[in-house]
Amino acid sequence: MKNLSLKQKLTILYTVLMTVNICAVLAVLFSLSNREILSSVQNRLRESVTGAFDDIDWEDGRLDFDSDILELENGVYLSVYDMDGALLYGKIPYGFDQSMDFRDGQVRRQKTGSVEYYVLDMSYAPEENVNLMVRGTISITDAEESFRITLRLALICLPLLVVLTAVLGYFMTRRTLRPVAHITETVLAIREEEDLSRRIGLGEGRDEIYRLASTFDSLLGQIEDSMKREKQFTSDVSHELRTPLSVILMQCDALLARDGLSGEVREEITVIQRKADSLSRMISQLLLLSRADQGREKVTMEILDFTGLSQMAAAEMEGIAAAKGIRLETAISPDIMVRGDETLLIRLWLNLLQNAVTYGKEGGCIHMGLWEDEDMVTGYVEDDGIGISARDLPHIWERFYRADSSRSNNGSSQNNNDSSQDNNSSSGLGLSMVQWIISVHKGTIQAVSEPGRGSRFTFRIPKEKKS
Ligand code: ADP
């Protein structure tokens, strides 16, 4: 029952209830009409027997019977007996047991072969000392026959009625639950497309489902508003922070350009400059992501030489990797063209390569590859560094998410003012941006990783066919 849909459950319930109802009504109707039929048969019998008294006369010292007695009026056989039980006049049904004793005024049942009869005996004295017994016999089987036909018909119709009820019930339930299916479809679409502007929009209605839909719609409106406010807030904050940070960076540059600074002071200013620089990059990323959320980020799609662009990104990262003693090995196929945004695609490679350097093993190796098949371009970055635990892996695409291992890594680096960490400007935003870039290019990306052995990020985007 648990696996059945609400529609099926309601149809079954409705059919069972209707069947029970129909059966109960039929049972009551048939029992009442059966009783009615039998009592009318008994009345007919009594009327015929008493009516027969008028057809028996005593004339000139002998009995005279009217031939009406033989007429089987109302289907009643009439027969007249003397008090010794000898048949004087009348008709009896074929095969009827004549030895049956007489009981004055009492209707009894008597079965002969397959036919059942009502029998009524009534004494009658047409003359003093002339006592007769008038017997009426009527077949109950005949009277019940028509009733039985109706009953048989009802039994044949019942399964048809049940099927009809089930089919009608199913369609009615489906119609009633159609708005529920619409609500589910809309909610699923909102989840899949992350489009909070969609509404169920069932319109005006007074039943519970319509009320539920309009409650959902107003809730969606509230969520959309608060999401918009949050995005606007992030965007505004990022924007506002940019100006003071630029001032700090400019002041650092100006200070460092001065002569006569002691080595210690110069080192301290450099630390401030690095931190401010890393903060500035984080804010730029945040601003870009919040603009992307609001659909305000301008994306320029053009046909690009992805091979050349990837080689540029590799060249840019080679030195940074080498500073950590990491080799960068590339396997980039020639002449790969894609339709995309140049800045974003370079950002994609840089973010993946930067992560590979940051979380890679000192003295290790990073592999970067790019090739194409019939429709798609596949790129990957693989390192042999700390890896990502299965628990963290599904969350690395979330904004500001940083796996525990990288946090502790960062923590120690921050204490040491390690320059490589500052270069990375570890923010937990890099992969969110990668994911957004991939979605803009209608591609897919996935990460596989084994803690302690390294990670591999593979993306696929549609390729631009060479004409
Ligand atoms: P971050 O700026 O912290 O690197 P990202 O969004 O780029 O932010 O990455 C999110 C988290 O995913 C990182 O903090 C790190 O824990 C994990 N991660 C990303 N790339 C790698 C990698 N190549 N190896 C190990 N962990 C990684």
Automatic annotation (TrEMBL):
Chain spans, region Disordered: 405-427
Residue stretches spanning the membrane: 12-32, 153-172
Molecular-function annotations in GO: ATP binding
Subcellular location: Membrane
InterPro entries per record: HAMP_dom, HATPase_C_sf, HATPase_dom, His_kinase_dom, HisK_dim/P_dom, HisK_dim/P_sf, Sig_transdc_His_kin-like_C, TCS_sensor_his_kinase
Low complexity: compositionally biased ranges: 406-427
Domain Histidine kinase per the UniProt entry, residue ranges: 236-465
Domain HAMP: 174-228
Primary residence: membrane
Pfam families: HAMP (PF00672), HATPase_c (PF02518), HisKA (PF00512)
Protein name, as recorded: histidine kinase
Organism: Blautia caccae
Organism lineage: Bacteria, Bacillati, Bacillota, Clostridia, Lachnospirales
